[in-house]
Fold this protein.
Amino acid sequence: NRDQDEHKVKEYLDELEFLTYTAGGEVTKRFTQRVEVPNPKTYIGSGKMEEVQHYVKENEIGSVIFDDELSPAQQNNIEKLLKCKILDRTSLILDIFAQRAKTSYARTQVELAQYEYLLPRLTGLWTHLERQRGGIGMRGPGETEIETDRRIVRDRIALLKKKLSKIDRQMETQRGNRGALVRVALVGYTNVGKSTLMNVISKSDVFAENKLFATLDTTVRKVVIGNLPFLLSDTVGFIRKLPTQLVESFKSTLDEVREADLLLHVVDISHPNFEEHIDSVNKILDEIKSVDKKTIMVFNKIDKYQPEILEEDDLITEKTSSHFTIEEWKKTWFSKIGDRALFISALNKENLDEFRKRVYNEVRDIHVTRFPYNN
Ligand code: GDP
């Protein structure tokens, strides 16, 4: 369906624009092209390339960002043709991570991912470029490292891996020392409200803002609901096409998810692509072998969303009034995903009592199976 495709492409580019903005850039022009498969040499076709070239020559564009991971050869060829800075989705995401990494652990993880991205791209890559300093895609491994040979990069990768595995072991011990408390992990696409929810239920002060990947390091808080304590972790947000280098180097950050007893999968239902977001998250959960974990789906931002009501006969009625009662929510499409779903607004603190009750019940059940004699 062409309309649906175009709608999707718009959403993808909106997301890429949001990523660019998060990295500190500004988008002035968008280009799309409908092709069966990307051109193996230049990703886009020659006609489209000329169109882009025109804007580069007119100085209307300083760099071009592709919504995909370009092969090293493609990147090289496009750079030769356009003679400007070429970024792909992976390098853009890596750049944002580099800006946002605060602890030395997160910095090490990002640095490793950046070097792994860089290694196959070392030959000839930067030679056609004007030697510009700074800007998106230039943070992290600087020019001097880029110009040195692959061997040095490989040594650096080995060193970073060693450093990480040492910290990993320490973290493993720390996690072990946390004792028998039930562990709950917030997971979800980036910017869905995980940190906001974490703050509301743990009364803590985790950094939340309307940018992608505000959270890089895992935050773990002890939360008490009723008189039941458990550990709640908020981890890095997932995104469509999350660079594999990152999934690999954020292994330990993701261990928090892997070792959790219960997942709270937070979804922003006000986002037009939320169903695809759910799929992206599930895909990464699958990669880290956590897709079969006990999960509560938490649909957030109900204050920003107008659902359609499903009648008995499956016909849809448009809702005209602005507020939805919980009974009405139960009549929507979302009720079809079963009772594992909750609808909240973390921002307006709507329906949080039901949320707490559900989490409490699940945690209590896990607790009881773990300590059958203490209860
Ligand atoms: P995270 O990346 O998943 O941790 O998301 P954040 O907690 O940083 O939130 C991302 C943005 O969504 C912030 O601007 C929040 O204020 C906003 N937000 C979070 N929860 C809600 C909500 O229930 N309703 C609305 N309208 N905005 C929300």
